[in-house]
Amino acid sequence: xxxxxxEAMRDATGELADTMSKMSKAPYGATISAWRRFTAAAHADxxxxxxxKELIAIAVSIVKGCERCISxxxxxxxxxxxxxxxMIEAGFVAMIMDxxxxxxxxxxxxxxxxxxxxxxx
Length: 121
Known about the structure:
Distance between the termini: 22 Å
CATH architecture: Up-down Bundle
CATH topology: AhpD-like
Shape: globular
Structural class: mainly alpha
Largest sheet: none
């Protein structure tokens, strides 16, 4: 993948973290705190593992066309043991559901995988 695409994915994840940090301050702190508690509970291992949930989130992020979400969930999936092949297959599932628009985001997925290879969340 292109170095520019890889950097864009790293920047996207950093920008999302910056936004969450800014929003966590008053007057929005309680709302963001509630959101974080909900997402932590929803992502916790249960009938599905955290890794499986992150693979689902990758597919949904592709269908929604959210590049920052793709990058975030690739980073988290990687940290939870997902392989490149598993993430690409999650992208294929998105393509089943969304067709061409999902295919257009496969490059974003590949850049995000390259950007977050070996990172922990």
